[in-house]
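Build the 3D complex.
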Amino acid sequence: NAGVTQTPKFQVLKTGQSMTLQCAQDMNHNSMYWYRQDPGMGLRLIYYSASEGTTDKGEVPNGYNVSRLNKREFSLRLESAAPSQTSVYFCASSEERQVQQYFGPGTRLTVL
Amino acid sequence: GESVGLHLPTLSVQEGDNSIINCAYSNSASDYFIWYKQESGKGPQFIIDIRSNMDKRQGQRVTVLLNKTVKHLSLQIAATQPGDSAVYFCAENGNSGYALNFGKGTSLLVTP
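Done.
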């Protein structure tokens, strides 16, 4: 039981490039989340998916898109990366509409 | 907007002492609070949670206290060990019901 997995672990992009961060969970959870964490800061919610087929904006959605591919997978896409998107990105999952969330190991993204 | 904040950014304690990490929240609609532990290079790990209809909840070596009157949350760690060194975040569920708002974190350093 791997829990929540994220790929890649590290990524360096140039300004304007695009990429997709992948997240998968094997706990049969309905709800999934994407957060970003900046140095010295707590986690800020980018997007979440309460259940398969639905997505909602969080606190900081600008510059990002998400896809809930199926129950297991929730991807985050940066269409045109900017230096302000340099951050550590965490994916999480939970039972549907339950607060206790389980986090992946994170993706460290640098945009030059 | 609503926010979750911490009183101290860093806390240094001696091994074997008790640790107290504090958190203030401002959203009176929050009814669920969680403490997470984040070790360097890893995702946050659930420690303990408490609902707003409770004042205190105990786990293994940890106790969470909730004072709704002054909107204050604390995490007490008994007999602090070197493995407790990490950043601790409080989080609350705010207006969404299940998407979490995180505080900025307190770094706990346990010295021998």
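Chain B has one domain: 4-90.
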